[in-house]
Amino acid sequence: MVTAILASGYWVTRQHINRQMQELSYRQLSMMGDSFRTAIFGMMSAGASDEMLDESYKRIVDREPRIMDLRVLHGAPLDRQFGIHRHELPKTLLEKEGLRSAQPLIDQRQENGRDIIEFVYPLFAEQQCLKCHQASLDESLGALSLRIDQSEFQQSIRKERAELWLLNIGELVLLLLLLLWVLNRLVFTPLFRLGDAADHMAQGDLSSDIGGEGESELGRVIRAFNRMAAKIRELLGDQEKVIREQTLELSHLMETSQHIGSGEPQEEVLAKFSRTLVEVLSVTSCRVLMLNEQDEMEVALEYPIRPLSEQLPVKGTRDNCPDIWSAIQLNDYILLNHEAEISEAERKLLRLDQAEAAICMPFGHKGKVFGVVVLSEFRAREREPIDARKIQVCRALIGQMGAAIEMSRLYEQLVEQLMETVLAMAESVEKKSPWTAGHSRRVTGYAMALAEQIGWHGEQLEELRIAGLLHDLGKIGVPGAILNKQGRLSEEEYAIIQRHPEDGAQILGKIKMLHPYIPMIRHHHEWFNGAGYPDGIGGEEIPIGARIMAVADAFDAMTADRPYRRGLPAEQAIERLEQGAGTQFDPELVAAFKRARITVC
């Protein structure tokens, strides 16, 4: 179509140029005819003869090589006046028409390979012509006939036409290039981008939009594609969010399942589950209310994501917390908002005096309820609603929480029973000899006093207490005769006594939960200089608990009565400890023992 438009334009331009050239030739020849007429009339007025006129015509032809023929034709008045002369008669059809025409005539044709223009200019009688010729005013006296060779002129025209054609071809090429550029910018490039985006979408890449949106059809297609990609990104984002949430929930469910039967204390189990509930369900606070023996609910712990205002202690009973007790009896949850009509005690326990909403769900195991979990949300319900998904996850986690607490309680009972059994074994050792009765308890008291002096507390003191009560458990294999012997022990008997730290460690080694106490029991007879038993280690290689036990054990051995001597006063015993500092005992611990001002039990 573009080519057709350009060809039409070229044809119209060519026709226009041809018309312009014809008009130009016509005007030039008319001006030439006017000049010749003026010259001829002037010469005739001056009385020039026919020979002089012919000579003038010849000179004109000689000066202008393009003029092939110049003749003056006689019209009817001159033929009547002077007679008919052959060389003055019309020869061509244009000349004949020119004698009858009131306007100049022009004709173009080819003769013998040359471009010829024939021009006939009519001559009319003027006032001055009537002096010599028998004619009326404005009557045709004849015509001026010119035959001109326009070959060079036409050649230049054809050259210009060729140049024009080349120019049009150049314009066509430029226009095509411009059209291609416009199409590439407005059509092809957006289409390629659209295709690439579709390929990326097929491969799962929806990270960017396509440029080129507009009001054109292609622009609207691109806009629709970008909207579709944005919608898919939104859906995938929601799906990824759900997957992340479900993955997090599943990982927390798996993590919390590890707490079941882990042997952790109940307080740690409650703390970990509370933190997990807050993180997984994205609530503001998790509060655990435990039931005591009087069926009263008390706040056992609370885990908030940010500091919350303190509340005065509140106890929940059947009377002041009817909605919570209803949930406990039905073993189902209740979901309340801050506008709910509930008792003041329930409002405080559920934190609805500050929170926007709260869910209360009982927890327990095999029909036995331990308490309730309260999840409070302080943010607006539109931002973080407690929906069905959160409730479902809450059920699963709280179910595991109940099982974990039951296992924790069973584990604590088992540990308690096991410790009672082991302590009974240790006490039975002391009963083998009246002289060692109460020894383990006294050593434990001295060791804990020394440990407190150097800054021990909490679990460290508890481990030291258990180890102190069990430190001579290995003597269960020592015969009573050796324990009650009043004289000096033989080498064989002393060797038997020396085995008791190792024997005690072997006994406890069969009980996994008692492994933390083994190092203190095995090494409480090691010397600071490495001369002790059973392994001969020294310095800081000896566990600090064992070094504490060594000082306490030696102090009780010196201050307690024996079959063969009376016990020493505390001051003398401490002096002997100081004498052994650096060799048998840790000097820093001996100094701390002295600062503790321990009295004999």
Automatic annotation (TrEMBL):
InterPro entries: GAF-like_dom_sf, HAMP_dom, HD/PDEase_dom, HD_GYP_dom, HDIG_dom
Residue span, HAMP domain: 185-237
A GO cellular component annotation in the UniProt record: membrane
Alphabetical UniProt keywords: Membrane, Transmembrane, Transmembrane helix
Listed GO biological process terms: signal transduction
Pfam families given in the database record: HAMP, HD_5
Residues covered by the HD-GYP domain: 414-601
Ranges that cross the membrane: 164-183
A GO term for molecular function: phosphoric diester hydrolase activity
Keyword Cytoplasm attached: no
Protein name: HD domain-containing protein
Annotated organism of origin: Mariprofundus erugo
